[in-house]
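Take just one protein record:
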Amino acid sequence: MKGMLGLLLLSSCAMAQSSLFLEAAAKRAKTTTDKFLEKVCDHEKDQIAKRVFWEYGSVFIAGEKVRIPRTCVFKDEESVRDFHEELKLSSARIGVAEITLQTEAMRSLLDAIDEAWAQQLRITPLDGTIAGTRDYQDTVRLWSSRFNRALDYWASRGRIRESEADAARKLEPHEQIPLVIKWEQARLWFSTGFNKSIFTSVAAPGTSQHLSGLAFDIVEHSNSRVRSLLNKHGWFQTIRSDEPHFTYLGLAEAELPGRGLEMVIHRGNFYWVPRSSPANSRLIRRVADSPSREGRQPRRQSPSYP
């Protein structure tokens, strides 16, 4: 009975916190929750928007010095280009790659890099220029690299009819997303290893945080000292399935719970995610019972560079 009561209390708390996140996102977008659902992210009616808002949505409460995305799902290249024209963007050479980010995010990242350097640490981009801001076609290329290979794999094994596969290849990228969601519900996984969701390794076209100029993928993500430095400068891990990925929120960590985010532990790392998303609801009790951040440290690794 006590266990059931505890779960009910946790669930009630989660519902209140999820409402807080929606309210915080709407306030940050300078609109009402109803208008936010109508104009920005109708996660109640659109299954793709729902996934984006609850799994990648931390970016919607970023600080006032940056521009948040105007929508959960950019439908095409033109809509992304129009959004990028509204942004104040800056570029810098980091490691061997030219990285572009929103100006305030870049300033904070360079501050973190300078501080890391003074401590004989490095913060370097993963996979070149796409570690920073991406355009719509970048997201399409990454999606297609997984989608087409998995489609061929399952069709060759008779799990997807050839006629269905041929029809899916001809669809626009944003039209392929509902099909993938349907197939993965039947455990036909579209990741590179065909053993987990495609969304654990790549965002659907037009949904990546990288389109906002507020995301950066780093090589040294497993180094706890590097993570702490990035956190200090407003960069946080916000997507549980994507360890190298950091999002610029431009806020102190202490401010994040008040904006409807919760800290969850996943594979020894700490992620700030919308609370409580459908994807995280099964974790409510486990996270609530987890040791404190001070009591449980993530795995450590020596810096990759001197």
About this structure: The chain is about 40% helix and 10% strand. Residues 2-134+208-288 form one domain. Strands lie at 89-94, 97-102, 215-217, 235-236, 245-248, 261-266, 269-274. The two ends are 55 Å apart (CA to CA).
